[in-house]
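Thread: Newbie trying to understand structure tokens

Hi all, I'm a second-year student working on a class project, and my supervisor (Dr. K.) asked me to get a predicted structure for one chain before our next meeting. I've only ever worked with sequences, so writing a 3D structure as a token string is new to me. If someone could post the tokens and maybe explain what I'm looking at, I'd be very grateful. Here's the chain:
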Amino acid sequence: MAAILPKESRELPSPTVMTANPAYISPEQTGRTNRPVDHRTDLYSLGVVFFEALTGALPFQSRDPLELVHSHIAREPGQPHELNPAVPPVLSAITLKLMAKNPEDRYQGALALKGDLEECRRRFEETGKIDDFPLARQDFSSALKISRDLYGRDRETGLSWTASSTSAGAPRKWCLSRDGPVSARPSSSNRPVAKSLGEAAG
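---
Reply by user tm_fold:
Sure, no problem. This is what the structure looks like when written as tokens:
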């Protein structure tokens, strides 16, 4: 399910033919966020398992795979400790950190999660309760993270912005193109423009 070396996905998998259970997939695993799939995908799925164990229900429930995909991408799950008052808020916070939409906001590795769970156990054994404490204090990543921000392509991006500004409100239609294989996604230099155009179009 997770890849060691992340690559930008150029294909949009159909939710109806996903090999993974759509109730447990991460936002990037849907193929609709243009984010690489790495080990943090498994941490998201583990968060769904934690949520189900703590509350007795999945965070998002639907028989429609497309609705589940939308939920994982755009909807926030409920607070486990609100759905089940017996759950300590810190366990709720750990679960929701695992289920963060943005991989950078999740635990970056299993060791940090293990450390927080061991701290929960230690506090419970000593006091019979689990008070809040700062999470992910041992969290760090040993993997090189490639920034998705664009550098050194100001000229190309500027040309795209100029074209979009010139064509705004004009009767002509224009499109973003790129060399190489046909793709469902814009190239790196066109991605910021495409994103803004999409937001402007609502």
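A couple of things are worth pointing out once you decode it. DSSP finds seven helices and no strands in the chain. The two ends are 33 Å apart (CA to CA). Feel free to ask follow-ups in this thread.
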